Amino acid sequence: MFGNMADMMGLMGKMKDLQSRMKEAQDELEVITQTAESGGGMVKATVNGQKELIGLELDKDLINPDDKEMLQDLIVAAVNKAFENIEPKIKEHLQKATDGVLPNIPGLDLGGFMK
């Protein structure tokens, strides 16, 4: 009878620890960054692990009002590439943050715990 209660208390403690670690890990994602480029480096986009665009650099030769659509396409391409490239860094960071708290479950994606 008391064994089950102790197991339940232990599980509750692990969940609180997991919640605390996840909060801390989410806060730390702000400093994880990824930069990607398009147009041969003429457009550079930088994102952070909280999936925010934090920087955008444009080569001055690209700024041409007559070719606005090309610039827009290059910006979208660079931003999307940066977001795609940061995903593995986010996953690795969250896995390290929960190491030892959760069992290693194949296919468990902790990205859903983010804001």
Your description of this structure?
The chain is of the alpha+beta class and 115 residues long. The protein has one domain: Ybab, Chain: A (2-Layer Sandwich). Helix content is 50%, strand content 16%. The chain has helices at 2-28, 68-97; strands at residues 33-38, 43-48, 53-58. A 3-stranded antiparallel sheet has the order 1-2-3. A hairpin with a 4-residue loop joins strand 2 (43-48) and strand 3 (53-58). InterPro entries: YbaB-like_sf, YbaB/EbfC.
Task: Describe how the helices and strands are arranged.
Blueprint: H1 2-28, E1 33-38, E2 43-48, E3 53-58, H2 68-97
Coiled coil: 8-35
Organism: Dyadobacter sediminis
Function: Binds to DNA and alters its conformation. May be involved in regulation of gene expression, nucleoid organization and DNA protection.
The overall pLDDT average reads 84
Helix content: 40-55%
CATH H level, superfamily name: Nucleoid-associated protein YbaB-like domain
Q: Which series of helices and strands comes N to C?
A: HEEEH
Number of strand segments: 3
Task: Report the sheet with the most strands, covering strand number, pairing sense and barrel closure.
Answer: 3 strands, antiparallel
Number of domains: 1
Q: What form results from the Cα inertia axes?
A: rod-shaped
